[in-house]
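Key result, reporting period 2: structure in, sequence out.
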C-alpha cells in the first residue's frame, strides 16, 4: 500500500517524459545553456551545470521508467495468462516467464516445431 505513491509518480513521470512538449522544453534548456556559454567564458562551472543536471535526471529516470516497464510487463503477462487459461491453448505456458532462459527457449522450440508440423499437415491435407 505504501508503494502506491511511487507507482503513481513513476507512471506520471514516464507519461510526461514521453511527451513532445517535454522534449522541446529540454531542447530549449540545452540551447539556453549552450548560448550562455560565452557569457560564462565556457567555464568549468558552466560545463558542470549541464553535466551534473543531465546525469542526475538520467539516473533517476532509469529507475522510474524501469518501474513502469516492470508493471506494464506484469500486467501484459497476467492478461496473456488469462487468455491461455480460458482458451484451448496449453495451460503449461502460464507462468513460463519465471523459467530459466534455457527452459523458455525449449518451450519456444517446441512451439516452432508444432507450427512446422501443423503447416506440413495442412499442406498434405490440401
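The corresponding designed sequence is given below.
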Amino acid at each position: 500500500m505504501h508503494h502506491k505513491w511511487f507507482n503513481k509518480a513513476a507512471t506520471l513521470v514516464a507519461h510526461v517524459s514521453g511527451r513532445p512538449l517535454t522534449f522541446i522544453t529540454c531542447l530549449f534548456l540545452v540551447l539556453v545553456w549552450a548560448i550562455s556559454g560565452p557569457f560564462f567564458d565556457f567555464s568549468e562551472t558552466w560545463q558542470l551545470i549541464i553535466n551534473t543536471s543531465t546525469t542526475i535526471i538520467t539516473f533517476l529516470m532509469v529507475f522510474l521508467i524501469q518501474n513502469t516497464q516492470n508493471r506494464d510487463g506484469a500486467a501484459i503477462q497476467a492478461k496473456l495468462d488469462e487468455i491461455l487459461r480460458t482458451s484451448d491453448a496449453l495451460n503449461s505456458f502460464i507462468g513460463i516467464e519465471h523459467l530459466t532462459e534455457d527452459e523458455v527457449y525449449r518451450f519456444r522450440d517446441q512451439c516452432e516445431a508444432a507450427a512446422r508440423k501443423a503447416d506440413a499437415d495442412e499442406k498434405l491435407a490440401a
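Helices lie at 4-17, 20-36, 44-86, 101-125. Residues 44-86 form the longest helix (43 residues). This case is discussed further under Risks and Mitigation.
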